[in-house]
Amino acid sequence: MKGLWGRALWVDLSREETRAWEYPRDYAVNYVGGRGFAARVLWDYLPPRTDPLSPDNLLIFAPGPVTGLAVNSGKMVVAAKSPLTGGYGDGNIGSYFGTMLRKAGFDAVIVTGKARRPSYLYVENGKAHILSAEAVWGSTASECERRLKEVHGKNSGVICTGPAGEKLVRYAVAISQGGRAGGRPGIGAVMGSKNLKAAIALGDMEVPVADAKETRRLLAEGFKAVKAKEGYSFWERQGTMATVEWGQEASVLPTYNFREGTFEFYRMIDGYSMEAMKVGLHSCPVCAMPCGNVVRDQEGLLSELDYENVAMLGSNIGIGHLGHVSVLNRLADELGLDTISLGSAIGFAMEATEKKLIKEGIEWGDHKKAKELVQDIAMRRGLGDLLAEGVKRASEKIGGNSSEWAMHVKGLEISAYDCHAAPAMALAFATSPIGAHHKDAWVISWEVRTGRHSYDEAKVDKVIELQRIRGGMFETLVACRFPWVELGFELDWYPKIFKAVTGMSVDFDFFNQLADRVYSLIRAFWIREMGGWDVSLDMPPARWFKEPLTKGPLAGSKLDLDGYMSMLMAYYRKRGWDSRGVPKRETLVKLGLGDVADAILPK
To answer: What is the CATH number of domain 428-600?
Structure first.
């Protein structure tokens, strides 16, 4: 298959060895790249029940066949067994590392082992070196990148972990370009556990595409088409920050640890407030619609904002001042902390304080203590050490009824959408293959438009449809969803791009089957690592079922348990899984996963 080199870089940090690996051809044909490649490698090569923070865990950097070649394709997947959830974990990050890795002659990097000293990986035009990172160990992610670029050149692609990754905070992320973050389930901690501070790529090799002229034409035309879309100018102004106002109007803005869906000070943190502070705009490589709104925070330093970090570090913890929110966000990026899980952890601590379950307290809206707590989490000091474990583990330790308002699914904290009155989005969170994340099926805008309170199978169908497109096609190509989601860039572009790059003429049936194969494989990985499965692992937090909203136009709303369960059972049936959520043998065989069936199902 064109568009790929057919080889990945295998790195053993313990042995200080690197080698090129010509992976099986069916990896490309049946899993394409990105998430699909990562999931198959983890299934095939990770010893079952591996401790995620042990040297044996596999850390994978995986672009896809269109990375760097299509509009908004400067993306790659970072993956490993998650130290936060214990299951499959990945993230999508915009980074020059991904585009440069392709130009350096590799389709992916797979890292095992643990270096005997702080190290970083350097890849250039088919060669790789493991070098000392002792000079940058302990530095912030942005400082690490700046200093390594001084050594390897401004065109090098760099991805780092911050101090939080070094301290093994379970929701530490990988950081690139100062504000691009990926790997919410603790990929940064996996890097830290391996003494791997960073990875760098630099190359000038041409990726072998099927039709270079058509690939260039589609890239150029794609840029023009995106920028011609209605709404583009407003996107340039606010990007995802417009979602704060939309979330308030739709009563889905997470407020006070997802207790409410509206925030009395939302105007102080919305897109218009951001515009008044804005000094720049950042983007991933090959991007037609930059999303990184750069502001000067309350301390006069630069912070890159989007909706998720503002909602989780703003309304969710009761802070109604965008300058203060921006400080917390900047610290998170510097330290290498996932802003979504961080906002959830702080909100959990604030509620635990309110309920007198912890001694070292923090009140709602206290931005000064929140700033201290962010640093304490990254350094695992005091209360921060508990919160560095994630809200699931924290709730298990402090007890009471805190498990009912520890806002997570499978151990991954919930993204910034309240679901008291959004059953389809609750199902999307609950069935996301990495835990409660919005990237796989952002169904809530469709649900708000079409009806909030129904529990019919049309909602199940929509969740699966979006999972196939967002979590399947986009995560394996690998490309950004924003042109399609935000501006209506037609999906028909992607089979055309795929054909020009790979030479394969495919339709959406191909991408749907690819997505179904990857989703069932990831579910099987969870089952193998957990030693089984039951429905409780696909349930949203109890709060949304037991505590109705008390404010806003949807006051009194809460999820209906029977309605939700009917949707979940329909979801399993449509996926070809049994009533526990385990893929059936015939489903796995049909998807070409017979070996997987033999591993998790009785013969």
So the answer is: 1.10.599.10
